[in-house]
Specification:
CBS_dom_sf, membrane, 65% helix, Cl-channel_core, CBS-domain, ion channel, mainly alpha
Length: 624
C-alpha cells in the first residue's frame, strides 16, 4: 500500500515537473509555441546525438516535394492551354486561322498585363535577376505571394504562345516557395537563402529531369555558395523534386538524340570555333532582348500607353511572327528535336536563329512572363545545326552529323548567356543521356562563356541588376561591399609571432588559445606569412620540431589585404579560400602588418549594411 502511494505521489510530482518546465520555457524565455517546440526538439536531438542539420533536411524535402508538384501542374497546365487553343485554331480555314493564331498570344499578354496591374499591382520583376538580388541583398527574402502570381502569369503567357520558356519561371516559383517556408519558420538569413536554393534546384531539376544540373545551377548562379551545409539540403530537394516529377511525367530524357561520338580529334577545332560563335551569339541575344525591352519602356512614356497594354502589344507582334514559324512558340521544343536529328531546313534554322531573341523580347520584355533557358537553347541548336551542316560539307568523313553540333551549340550558347558552363554541361548530359558528347560540350561551353565575357561583361541577369546599381558575385552584393574599406572591419588585437620564435612556443600558445591561424612578422613588423591549422597539425603529428623556428614552418603564399582594399575583395577571398578564416591587412607602402579581418566579422558587418540598403520584397516595386 505504501509503495502504491509513493508511486502515485511520484506520478503527480513528475506531472508537476513537466508543466513547470513548459511554463518556464514559455514565460522566462519569452518565446511563443514555436520557440518551446524548437527548444524541446533541440533537447531531443542532443539526446539522440544529432545536430540541427538533420531536421533541416526534412524541411528541404518538403520544399522539394512542393516544388515538384507545382512543376508537374505547371507542365500540364501549359500543355492543356496550348493544345486547346492552338489545336482549335488549326481546325479553322484561312484567313481566320491566321487571325486567331496572331490574337491568341495578344489575349494572353492582355490577361497577364491586367493581372499584374490590378491583382499584383506592381510591374513584373526581371525573372532570375530578382532571385539573385534577393539572395545577395535581401537575405533570401521573396514576397510570400510571389510563387502564386508567378505561376498564374507564366502559365497564361507561355500557354498562349509567348516566346519565353517554362524552365526559369518554375525555378523562380520554387525559389519563392523555399523563401516563404524560411520566413514562416523564422529561420536565419543563411538558412532562408539555402531553402531558396533548394526550391530553385528542385524546380529546375523537375522541369528538366536533371537533378545534378539543378543543384549546380542553384549553387553556381543563384547562391554562389559551395559549402557542405548548403550543398546537402539542395541535393536532397533536387532529388525529391526530380523523383516526383518522374513519377508523373516519366523518366525519359527531355531530348531524344542519336548516339554521337567524337569522330576525329580535328573536330575539337571545329567545336572551339562553334564556342566562339556561340559566345558572340550570346551577346547578340542579350543585347537584342534588352533593346526590345527598353523600346517598350520608351513608347510607354512617349505615347502614354497604359502599362497593362504593353504585354498585349508584345503578344500581338509575337503572334504575327510565330504564326508563320511555330517553332518560335515557347511551349514547343519541336524545332530543337528536328535540329538534333539533323532534319531541320536551312530556312527554319536561319529564321529561328535570328528571330528567337526578338520573339522572347516581344513577349517577355513587354511585361509578359517566361524564361530565357528555352529561347537560348533554341537559338543555340540552330547555330550548331547550321555550323554542323557546313563542316559536314567541307569534311564529310571527319566530322559528326549536324545533330551533334546542334546539341553542342545549344549548350554553348546557353552557357554564354547565363555565364554558367558547369550547369549547362551537367544539364545537357542529363537531358540527353549522351556521355560521349560531354567532352565537346565542355570545350565549347567554356569557350563560349569566356568569349561572351570578354565581348560583353553583362550576363542575362547582371545587366538589369547593374542598371539598378547592384553588382553581385559569389552571392554577394558587391555594389555595397566595394564601397566599404577593410579598415572599418579590421581588428588590431590578435596573436602574432616573430619569424625567429621557436616552434615550441607557437605550439604552447596554440594549446592555450582558441586561435588556429597565427601571423608571422620580422623585426620591422613586415608581414612574412601565416602558420595555419594545416602546419600546426603536421607539427603535432610529426613531433620532430625541436630547434625549428616560425620562419621554417610559415606559409608565405597566402591571400592578403591592403589598407586600400575594399570589403568586397575580402568577402571574395573568404568564399574561394576555405582554408582560412583570417586575412592579414598590410600597409601597401611599407609592407607592415596593420591588423586582421576575421571572416565572421566581415560577413556580419556586410549583413548589417544590407539591412540598411535591402528591402522586404523581391525587388523594389516599380509603379504602374
Amino acid at each position: 500500500m505504501k509503495e502504491h502511494k509513493n508511486g502515485k505521489r511520484n506520478w503527480k510530482r513528475n506531472l508537476r515537473v513537466f508543466f513547470y518546465a513548459v511554463l518556464r520555457k514559455s514565460r522566462y524565455l519569452k518565446g511563443n509555441h514555436r520557440t518551446v517546440f524548437r527548444l524541446s526538439l533541440d533537447a531531443l536531438l542532443v539526446q539522440l546525438n544529432l545536430n540541427q542539420d538533420f531536421p533541416f533536411l526534412f524541411i528541404a524535402i518538403f520544399v522539394g516535394l512542393t516544388t515538384g508538384y507545382l512543376a508537374v501542374m505547371f507542365h500540364d497546365a501549359i500543355l492543356l492551354f496550348s493544345s486547346f487553343l492552338f489545336g482549335g485554331a488549326d481546325l479553322l480555314t484561312s484567313p481566320y486561322r491566321y487571325i486567331i493564331l496572331a490574337l491568341i498570344p495578344a489575349l494572353g499578354g492582355l490577361f497577364v498585363g491586367l493581372y499584374n496591374a490590378y491583382v499584383v499591382k506592381t510591374r513584373p520583376g526581371h525573372g532570375l535577376a530578382s532571385v539573385i538580388k534577393a539572395v545577395a541583398q535581401n537575405n533570401g527574402t521573396i514576397k510570400k505571394s510571389h510563387w502564386f502570381h508567378k505561376t498564374v502569369t507564366s502559365v497564361m503567357s507561355i500557354g498562349t504562345g509567348g516566346g519565353g520558356g517554362r524552365e526559369a519561371p518554375i525555378l523562380q516559383v520554387g525559389a519563392a516557395i523555399g523563401s516563404t517556408v524560411g520566413q514562416l519558420l523564422k529561420f536565419s538569413p543563411d538558412r532562408t537563402r539555402t531553402l531558396l536554393g533548394c526550391g530553385a534546384a528542385a524546380g529546375l531539376a523537375a522541369v528538366f529531369n536533371a537533378p545534378i544540373g539543378g543543384v549546380m545551377f542553384a549553387i553556381e548562379v543563384i547562391l554562389g555558395d559551395f559549402s557542405v551545409k548548403t550543398f546537402s539540403p539542395i541535393v536532397v530537394a533536387a532529388v525529391v523534386g526530380t523523383v516526383l516529377s518522374r513519377s508523373f511525367l516519366g523518366s525519359s530524357p527531355t531530348f531524344q538524340v542519336s548516339p554521337y561520338t567524337l569522330v576525329s580529334n580535328i573536330e575539337l577545332l571545329f567545336y572551339f570555333i562553334l564556342g566562339v560563335l556561340a559566345g558572340l551569339s550570346a551577346v547578340l541575344f542579350i543585347k537584342t532582348y534588352y533593346a526590345i525591352e527598353e523600346w517598350f519602356l520608351r513608347i510607354e512614356k512617349r505615347y502614354n500607353i497604359p502599362v497593362w497594354m504593353l504585354p498585349a502589344i508584345g503578344g500581338l507582334l509575337c503572334g504575327l511572327i510565330c504564326m508563320w514559324l511555330p517553332g518560335l512558340y515557347g511551349y514547343s521544343y519541336s524545332v530543337v528535336d528536328s535540329a538534333l536529328r539533323g532534319e531541320e531546313t536551312w530556312t527554319g534554322m536561319i529564321s529561328v536563329y535570328l528571330l528567337k531573341p526578338v520573339v522572347a523580347g516581344l513577349s517577355v520584355g513587354s511585361g509578359g512572363s517566361g524564361g530565357m533557358f528555352a529561347p537560348a537553347m533554341k537559338m543555340g541548336a540552330m547555330l550548331g545545326g547550321m555550323f554542323g551542316k557546313v563542316v559536314n560539307m567541307i569534311l564529310p568523313g571527319m566530322t559528326a552529323a549536324s545533330g551533334a553540333y546542334a546539341l553542342v551549340g545549344m549548350g554553348a550558347l546557353t552557357a554564354g548567356i547565363m555565364r554558367a558552363p558547369l550547369t549547362v554541361i551537367l544539364i545537357l548530359f542529363e537531358v540527353t543521356g549522351q556521355y560521349e558528347i560531354v567532352l565537346p560540350i565542355m570545350f565549347a561551353a567554356v569557350t563560349s562563356t569566356l568569349v561572351a565575357r570578354v565581348a560583353y561583361r553583362h550576363s542575362m541577369e547582371t545587366y538589369v541588376l547593374e542598371k539598378e546599381g547592384v553588382r553581385v558575385g559569389y552571392g554577394i552584393a558587391l555594389s555595397v561591399a566595394e564601397n566599404i574599406s577593410v579598415l572599418d572591419v579590421m581588428r588590431t588585437d590578435f596573436i602574432k609571432f616573430m619569424d625567429v620564435t621557436r616552434v615550441e612556443k607557437v605550439l604552447e600558445v596554440f594549446h592555450n588559445t582558441p586561435e588556429s591561424n597565427f601571423l608571422v612578422t620580422n623585426e620591422e613588423n613586415q608581414f612574412v606569412g601565416m602558420i595555419r591549422l594545416e602546419e600546426m597539425s603536421i607539427l603535432l603529428r610529426d613531433g620532430t620540431f625541436a630547434g625549428l623556428i616560425a620562419e621554417d614552418v610559415v606559409k608565405k603564399e597566402v591571400p592578403v589585404l591592403y589598407d586600400s582594399s575594399k570589403l568586397d575583395e575580402a568577402l571574395k577571398f573568404f568564399e574561394v579560400a576555405d582554408y582560412t578564416n583570417v586575412l592579414p591587412v598590410i600597409s601597401k607602402r611599407s609592407g607592415k602588418l596593420l591588423g586582421i579581418v576575421r571572416q565572421e566579422e566581415a560577413f556580419s558587418y556586410y549583413r548589417k549594411q544590407m539591412n540598411l540598403y535591402g528591402s522586404d520584397t523581391v525587388e523594389p516595386a516599380r509603379p504602374l
